[in-house]
Recover the amino acids of this structure.
């Protein structure tokens, strides 16, 4: 019985860590996509719209944290910030 319990527990841990890995990978890509959207549309945005967009980014980070995905939240922000730093230096200097 203990062996069966151990096998079930191991399968659950493996399944959960696989799911967590997918969430983390998706979070980073999502951060990069949000940064790309901001860069592509910033010329048509007012200062207030840019600030609202960045608040939306922070809200997404908070949602990840609220769902218990702290690493995904960190990766989302890293993806967002790194993409902007790599692709739009002037914007990076303005917002970071």
């Amino acid at each position: 019985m203990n062996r069966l319990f151990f096998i079930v527990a191991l399968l659950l841990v493996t399944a959960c860590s696989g799911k967590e890995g997918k969430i983390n990978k998706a979070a980073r890509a999502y951060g990069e996509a949000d940064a790309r959207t901001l860069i592509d549309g910033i010329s048509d945005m007012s200062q207030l719209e840019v600030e609202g967009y960045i608040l939306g980014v922070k809200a997404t980070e908070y949602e990840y944290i609220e769902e218990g995905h702290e690493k995904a939240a960190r990766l989302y922000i890293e993806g967002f910030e790194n993409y902007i730093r790599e692709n739009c230096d002037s914007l990076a200097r303005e917002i970071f």
In short: Residues 4-15 have pLDDT under 50 and may be disordered. DSSP finds four helices and no strands in the chain.
